[in-house]
Write a structure and sequence with these properties.
Shape: globular
Number of strands: 6
CATH architecture of the largest domain: 3-Layer(aba) Sandwich
Structural class: alpha/beta
CATH class of the largest domain: Alpha Beta
Radius of gyration: 19 Å
GO molecular function: NAD(P)H dehydrogenase (quinone) activity
Helix content: 25-40%
Pfam family, one: Flavodoxin_2
Order of helices and strands: EHEHHEHEHHEEH
Distance between the termini: 29 Å
Number of helices: 7
Bound molecules: flavin mononucleotide
Organism: Neoasaia chiangmaiensis
Protein name: NAD(P)H dehydrogenase
Number of domains: 2
Keywords: Oxidoreductase
Largest sheet: 6 strands, parallel
Strand content: 5-15%
Oligomer: single chain
């Protein structure tokens, strides 16, 4: 199988990068082909701006969606974006590894999503509408696994934790960026209290748990997000009344509340 690891940490000795090394070693040893997108190492351009569209369809006014669709359809995307799209298409599974920065992904990873997820590719797929999304799309059939490292303790990210549940905080990534274009998203693997990790034994314990998660990359059950076209959203916008009755907000999106 082909594995793409997308990671966002510039420091090779960081815990994040040590966990990336575990991913690479373990999946390579298992016979998989591992490809990296080392966002800092690549000096990934994080800001989505006019430089992304050297051949504008409309030089008068920058409409990101229109120019994105034009560049994608006419083969005029920048080479860095095209290369990442090809890596995604070639992957059977995508592993994302990053520290939690202000309750979300580091800016460089957000910029990777904004720029790589072109109109016609990740959204507006096939016919320019929203017909194929949330479980269907260009990345359907691929698996995604998020590994996030948080400085705060697990209690802060529990069901009633002060920061909110990690699976809800990362909903824009798991549901919005990974499930949207069709991927099956595994439950997030979070490492907590990273700021207090100091001994080699603690690091080894963290790596051992991660190895167990990686062993289930192609077998673990994904988060049961609701398909757009599976009947739960009859008009493709709002959940039917009989689905998750009485529940609102993000919790209603998880078919099994235990996955929140
Ligand atoms: C800019 C920045 C924002 C951060 N935001 C959070 C946060 O929202 N929640 C949290 O628990 N830790 C936060 N932290 C702590 C990081 O998650 C922590 O430093 C990281 O997990 C350590 O892993 P590393 O050794 O791989 O960098 C933040 C750190 C930085 C530098």
């Amino acid at each position: 199988m082909n594995i793409l690891i997308v990671y966002a940490h510039p420091e090779p000795t960081s815990l994040t990068r040590q966990m990336v090394d575990v991913t690479t070693e373990m999946l390579s040893a298992a016979g998989h082909t591992v490809v990296h997108s080392d966002l800092y190492g690549m000096k990934w351009k994080a800001v989505y701006d006019a430089d992304d569209f050297p051949e504008r369809d409309n030089p008068e006014r920058l409409s990101f969606i229109a120019e994105s669709g034009h560049a994608y359809a006419s083969g005029q995307q920048t080479p860095d974006v095209l290369a990442e799209q090809q890596k995604l298409l070639a992957a059977d599974a995508v592993v994302l590894q990053f520290p939690l920065w202000w309750y979300g992904v580091p800016a460089i990873l957000k910029g990777w999503i904004e720029r790589v997820y072109a109109f016609g590719f990740a959204y507006g797929y096939q016919n320019g509408s929203n017909q194929f999304r949330f479980g269907e799309g260009i990345l359907k059939g691929k698996r995604a696994l998020v590994n996030v490292l948080a400085g705060g303790p697990a209690a802060d990210y529990g069901p009633r934790g002060i920061n909110g549940p990690i699976e809800q905080l990362l909903f824009p990534l798991t549901h919005g960026a990974l499930f949207y274009p069709g991927m099956e998203v595994l439950p997030t693997h979070a490492v907590y209290s990273t700021v207090h990790v100091s001994t080699a034994e603690e690091v080894e314990a963290i790596k051992a748990v991660w190895r167990k998660r990686l062993a289930g990359l192609f077998t673990d059950a994904p988060i049961p997000f609701r398909l757009q076209n599976g009947g739960d959203f009859p008009n493709h916008h709002t959940m039917a009344d009989h689905v998750a009755p009485g529940q609102t907000g993000l919790a209603a999106h998880f078919a099994d509340p235990a996955d929140m």
